[in-house]
Amino acid sequence: MKVLMKGNEAIAEAAVRAGCRAFFGYPITPQNEVPEYFSRRMPEVNGVFIQAESEVSAINMVYGAAGSGVRAMTSSSSPGISLKQEGISYICAAELPCVIVNMVRGGPGLGGILPAQSDYFQAVKGGGHGDYKMLVYGPSTVQEAVNIMYKAFDKADQYRIPVMLLGDGVLGQIMEAIELPAMVDIQTIPKKEWATDGTGVGESRRVINTLKIKPEALEDLNNRLADKYKTLSKNETRYEEYRTDDAEIVFVAYGTVARISKSAIDTLREKGIKAGLFRPITLYPFPSVQILSLSKQDSVKKFLAIELSMGQMVEDVRLAVNGNKPVDFFGKVGGIVITPDDIVNYVIKER
Amino acid sequence: MAVVYKKSKMLTNVPLSYCPGCAHGIVHKLVAETLEEINAEGRVIGIAPVGCAVFAYDFFNCDMQQVAHGRAPACATAIKRCHPDKIVFAYQGDGDIASIGTAEIIHAAARGENFTVIFINNAIYGMTGGQMAPTTLVGQKTTTSPFGRGKLQGNPIKLTEMLATLDGPSYLARVAVSDPANVMKAKKAIKKAFEKQVNGKGFSMVEVLSTCPTNWHMTPVQSLDFVKNEMTKVYPLGVYKDC
Fold this sequence. Notes:
The complex is a heterodimer.
Chain A: E1 2-6, H1 7-17, E2 22-25, H2 33-41, E3 48-51, H3 55-67, E4 72-76, H4 78-93, E5 98-104, H5 120-124, E6 135-137, H6 142-159, E7 162-168, H7 169-173, E8 175-179, E9 207-208, H8 215-236, E10 239-242, E11 249-252, H9 255-270, E12 275-280, E13 282-284, H10 288-295, E14 302-307, H11 313-321, E15 327-331, H12 340-350
Parallel strand pairs in A: 2-3, 2-4, 4-5, 5-7, 6-7, 11-12, 11-14, 14-15
Antiparallel strand pairs in A: 1-8, 6-13, 10-12
Chain B: H1 24-37, E1 44-48, H2 56-59, E2 63-66, H3 72-82, E3 87-93, H4 94-100, H5 102-110, E4 116-121, E5 124-125, E6 131-132, H6 159-163, E7 171-176, H7 180-198, E8 204-209, H8 213-216, H9 220-234, E9 238-242
Parallel strand pairs in B: 1-2, 1-3, 3-4, 4-8, 7-8
Antiparallel strand pairs in B: 5-6, 7-9
């Protein structure tokens, strides 16, 4: 049965159904419906909801809860995510599983409250201090966000890594008819032997720690994390192609913009312009191998990265294309969302 | 032969990393003995701070989490809420709790979170080499207040008094480990704080006036006198809240 839900609320419900039993947040637009939803939903499932005193506290609450073996998450929007970066670095160092939602708004600074994709670099390149990555998804619809959220805790547990769901104001605020997944029985979630649930003593004592005072120990951690990211790249890269079979111009776009691009592609095709879309679903790991392969397709004359930023993902597209074909960029900023007509007009003008 | 004294089983066999004359060892012992006395073995989660006591994760014989500078109360909040049947404690220094982590401690106390904080006040940043702390005394020389803490460097923060204005805490006390009698009083306060947690009374904290002979440039004996004669003037000992 389909239900009509706002993106932010649907994501929260999907998390509950995935076994999330601890949410820590702080108000910031445009993600407020996430903590609001959890505040009334968590008591129904014996879960924990805390409105923290700051984003800094919220992410460190996630650290504590995740470290003690509970499926935990936080959500925020750009300025708040900046504040969480210290905690995210610690979470990566301690190899704790959790989920972080960023409903991106325009920046820098306080910026605006309207949709943007200007946190791409922060999300996929690390964000805080030290060598680390997260598993980052850029869902395009509310249903896809729900499906990704439902699996995100499994992925987080499997790799002991934070998973980020990188949305934007549109995804958070839009209402769509969605199918919700079934409630996971939390008793069936594999027990985390490494977690500090308090039962450890003597030999069975567990320590969650990010201090590696001996250089060899830190080197080991860095190497182990690098291996983990290689495995992620091999096993978890996800993408979608739309009308790329005979495409001469390939758009590369994610999230809300990818959805808008599809409309533009249909219009351009009616005008005889063979456009197609490559949509990364995982932003880290980035589907570089697949883009490289597409760049070698004979029909493809050029790529066009389309983003709600001054051009961030386009750098990864250029690295992937590796000079095989030209890579152009079209973006809008300030919270102004690109329309299908904007894209159509840009493509025709640049021909 | 009768055993008259032994190390608490709530301490591991890892040798302490603290300097001679540092009181962390005494306080670790008091916390460990208390945990043993309340039969908490096998149901404790401790939080180690950033600072000299970060290595507490090696010393306490229980599950431990090391957390970012100042964030122990946030971390402890989440752990206790997720595991209300476990004993949770945060061990924090003065820079950790009264400077970078003021927001976290105030709000955990205001919410009345049911865990226990051991706050070591030695009026200095120890691990980083003796910089001025929020609790450094007026006139006290440190590596970042080389002429003595003056007006431009601000005044000592009296955290226990501040928290006593809140409705959340169930127990707040300040003790000193400057001599055997005061060590005994410190033990009583620490035990009381943990008992509050056991009985679900809410947030409890014991501030322990402690020593840092290395960075105070004093002998261990001189530093104990400094606690007794100077620190207690600014930070009066006593129970600030018990309800």
